[in-house]
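Why should sequence recovery work at all? Because a backbone constrains its sequence more than one might expect. Tight turns favour small or flexible residues, buried strands favour hydrophobic ones, and helices have their own preferences. The token representation captures these environments compactly. In the example below, the structure is given first.
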């Protein structure tokens, strides 16, 4: 009876300490790929051209995309930047800061990300306000005549190819 009780207690402890399937911050790895956050697969991947076409029609797009890593947060790994074929790199943050990627050594590797791509537009008045706050001259402030469009991504899960 004592053995049966001990086995049952051990089983309950193992279940209680395990993480639920697909939970964020779960890290799965093998020799070719490491997974961070929600478990995702490289399926239904869209190109950056397809993403930009979709974002020209709407502000947010649920998608999976693949791009090269250009940088990661050196402190905690709480964001990364990707070469998405845009003028500037695309910043990727992680849903609710629920997981992190390695802080170094990821540049040049390919990543697959799944989540929400978004477009943000900062209007001229706000850009001028930022320039004023930054101590820019009146001439520099008045030279701002176009809104600024930027693109970002909030990822539920990430695959990094080694």
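From this structural description, the recovered sequence reads:
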């Amino acid at each position: 009876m004592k053995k049966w009780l001990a086995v049952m207690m051990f089983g309950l402890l193992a279940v209680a300490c395990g993480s639920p399937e697909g939970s964020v911050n779960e890290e799965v790895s093998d020799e070719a790929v490491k997974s961070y956050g929600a478990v995702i697969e490289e399926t239904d991947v869209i190109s950056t051209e397809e993403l930009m076409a979709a974002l020209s029609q709407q502000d947010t797009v649920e998608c999976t995309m693949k791009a090269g890593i250009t940088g990661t947060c050196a402190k905690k790994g709480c964001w990364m930047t990707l070469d998405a074929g845009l003028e500037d790199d695309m910043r990727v943050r992680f849903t609710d800061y629920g997981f992190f990627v390695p802080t170094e050594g990821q540049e040049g590797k390919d990543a697959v990300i799944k989540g929400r791509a978004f477009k943000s537009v900062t209007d001229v008045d706000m850009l001028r306000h930022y320039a004023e706050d930054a101590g820019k001259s009146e001439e520099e402030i008045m030279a701002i005549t176009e809104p600024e469009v930027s693109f970002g991504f909030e990822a539920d899960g990430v695959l990094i190819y080694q």
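A few observations help interpret the result. DSSP finds four helices and eight strands in the chain.
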